[in-house]
Request: fold
Amino acid sequence: MKVKFLKDYLGQKKDSVMDLPDDQAKAAVDATVAEAVAVEIKDLDEAVAGIQKSMTEQLEAAAQKITTRVIDQVSKGLKTVRPTLVIGPDRQDLDPTSGFKNLGDFAQSVRRHFTHKASDERIKRMIAKADGMDENVLADGGALVPTEYANQLYRDVLAESVMFDKARKYPINIGNSLFIPVRQISALGQTSAVGGSLGTWLNGDGVGITPQKPVYSRVQMTLNRWGTLLPVTDELLQDNNVALSNFIFDEGGIALAWDLNQAFISGSGVTQPQGILNSGSLVTVAADLNQPGFTISYSNLVNMKSRLWTIRPGDTSGVVWIAHPDAEAQFEQLKDAAGRNLYFAAGTIQQSPQPRLFGIPVVYSFHCSAVGNPGDVILADLNQYLVSTKVGGGIEAAMSMHLYFDAAEVAYRIIYRVDGKTARQTPLAIPNSANNRSGFVVVAARTVIS
Reply:
C-alpha cells in the first residue's frame, strides 16, 4: 500500500510517498492521525485561553468605564442637591425645644394636633414620653411644655428673686424630703455634746485624751408644691406667638417670684417655706430710747450689725440688708457722727450697681414689714438660709385645651416644688457678752410717736 506522509514521520519527509505492507501502512496511518489530532487539540486549548483572556480584559475595561460614568453622574448630582441633616431619635430627645420655634409655636401645634387631628410628630414624641398620657386624652395632664421654655421661665423667676441666688442650695434627688446635718451649738465655742470644746490641753507626757463627741443636729427639708393655672384665649393663641410667650413668662414668672420672696421672708413654714421673720433664730434689737415712731436711726443699724453672726468670722459674702422700699428715703439721710453718708444709692459708687449701706449690699422687697415694724429692715447672712428644690431645680409646665374648652381658652399649668428655712432655730450665746447673736437680725417696733 502506498502511503503519503503529510508531515515528517519515521524518517520520511513531508509529502513523500512509499510502499508499505498493509499492516505497517495501517499502523503508520493510525499514528499519524493520532498525532495530528493531539496537535489540533493543543491548538484549540490555546485558542480558547486566548478568547477567555480577551473577554476578561474587555469586561474589566467595560466595568471600569461604567463605574467611572456612575461616579461622575453622582458627583454632578451632589453639587445640585442641598444636604439635609437627619437627626435620629436619640438627638431629637436631647433637643430642649423639642423642635418648636417658640412657646407660641408649641401652643398652636398642640391645638391643631388635638382639635383638628392634624398630625404633628413633635407632639407625638412629647406625649409618648409623658407617663399616663395618650394622644386622645390631653386632659390627663396636658402636653408638657418643652424644657427650654420652662427653663426660660425659671431664669426669669431667679432674676426677680431677692434671696434665692445667695441662699445655700440642697437639691433633693429621691422623694420629697432631705435631712441636712448641721453643727448644733447653743453657745459660741461649744463644740462638744457635753459642753465646752472637743479639744483637751495635755499638761504632761502620757496624759490620756478625753474622748468627746461633736454636737450635730439635722434640718429636715420637705418640698412644698406651688402651682398656678394661666388661661390664654384662643384669639391670643392664634394671632400672636410673641405676645403669648411674653404673657406666659411674665405672668407666671412674676407670680412665682412674688410668692417665693414672700415665703423666704415671712413664710409660716406650714405647706410653704419658713421665712426669716418666723425663724426661732431671729434676734431683735431694741429700739432707741424715746425714738420717734416709724423711723430708722443710725444707732438701730449699728446695733443690728453688732448682733450679726457669720459662720466664718469676717465673711460677709452672703450678708445683705433686706429692706422695704419705703426705707430708702430714710437711708438717704443717714450720717455718722462726722457727717459722712452711710448709704450710697445704686450707681453712686463706681462698679457697684447695687446700693450699699455700711458697705453691705441692699436689696429691696415689698414683702418686708412696713417701716416702724420688726422686719422693715433685715440684716441677713444668706449662707445660713437653706433652700431645697427637686434635682435640676426646674419648673414643671404643661398645657391643656380641655379645662376651659367651653370658654375657648387654653390653660397653662406651672408647678414648682421648693422648701426653705434657716439652718439654726435658736440664737447663739456669746462668751463674755449678755447679747446673743444670729445670722438674722431685725429692730423692735417703732410705731409709738414720742
